[in-house]
# Entry
Amino acid sequence: MHGWEMPERSFSAERAAVIFIIALFAILTGVLALSLYQSYQAAILRINERVMTSSQIVATNAGWIDAVAWQALRRIDDRVGPDIKAGAITGVENIKDAVYGLPGHVQAYVVSADGVTLYSTDPQVKPIDIRDREYFSALAKGAFEYISPLLVSRLNGEQIFVYSRRLQRGNTFAGAVMVSFSGDMLSSIWQLVDLGPGSTVSIMRSDGKVVARYPKPPGPIDLGSYVLFTDYLKKRDHGVYEAVSPADSERRIVGYRRVPGTDLVVQASAGYEENMREFWRNLYFTVSFAAATAIGLAVGAAWIASLLKRDAVRNRELERAVDQNQMLMREIHHRVKNNLQIIQSLIRLQPLPDGVRNGLFDRLSAMSAVHEHIYHYDRFSEISADTLIPSIVDPLVRAYKPDVTVEYDLDACPVSNDQATSLALLVGEVVTNALKYAFTEGAAGKLVVRLKALDAGRARLEIHDDGPGFDPDANTPGMGTKLIAASVQQLSGQHRYEMDHGTRFQAEIRLV
# Structure
């Protein structure tokens, strides 16, 4: 009776051990697969956020270039005067200062109706007939303003793009005034967004023709039949997609955005392989560790099976075999415990997402503005609130209520980089609420934004509209209200609302 009992018990123990190891391996595999999947999604999400933020930076710069280019053309038009001919204005300096401050290598030209260049800031200008160029011929045919696609200069062979404006005296086409930008001007923006090797930044017209791109392409590009213009832009004015570039056949993740108030579309793209390289390194390390663990478990299982089979024939050493089996089982549990702790530590090191982040892309524009200011003004430790706040408020007013006037009273308070994002989110949310709810449709209004320095790095922020006001106690808190409260808390401050000929938001906050 006892002679048959031990092999049966040994077989049951062996089978249980094998099942346990298989179950443990299955659990390990499932946890590892889930972790890797979540890590992959987190890596993609990080790249998406970076390209979206970068596209906002490119859009901000493109909008600024567009605005100052048209302003320069209007100024030159005014200075040319009614008589458009050589000698009608007093020298090149009168048009040179009109393009002062424009980014990159910019040249201005005044061309008569018969294609003769009357004035130019370009010292290398030559008598070249430009009447076949569309930036001139479109004006001659009746267009008032024109933005060219990417061109190759006939003067020096460099890539350029041109803003042009029709010169009209009475009802007659009298010529054109133009500003020409070098294609290299996007290099500083490309360096600013810093999306890594294989990345690009581009400015395009709404018809799909590329205006400028960096790194520079071999020549002009028409993306009118590309998926960005045939699909994505028809659905949303901004977003992210993954595709193979028609310009160089590289796989990239692309953030795109229409530039408000212009005929331009911008995009910032990151090379897929370059940005996923860290994930693949982590994947290799994780899989290698998991494989070593699996081999250890398999070796352990084989060792246990061998011991159990050997103990099955040792009836006379039953007590010692039982003690040995107990010792081995304690060793197994100890090893499993250690392996699980190592796996848990590895999972904690993975950048897992906190949850779904729907609706946050629109609020990134405020944060993009913070970055743009940090680099644009070469202020890497702190920025000034009197330049940061208008860059957040003005685009919101143009987007929501262009008939609302804004009065600023801002001290040049320094804002640390740690606090700048919270300040941007706070101002953006309060101003957005005012623009949405304080002014009736079509009615003009006024918005006062005031920031006054206090002591010890603190300041008083006040945003006042002249709308009908509201009862904050009766208002149901929404995402915006919660974000305002969270931003104030992050700024170590307190806030309140007052009804004084409208709604007055006040907060005392820390900026450094």
In short: The chain has a mean pLDDT of 79. The longest strand covers residues 159-169. The first helix runs from residue 2 to 80. The CA atoms of residues 208 and 223 lie 5 Å apart.
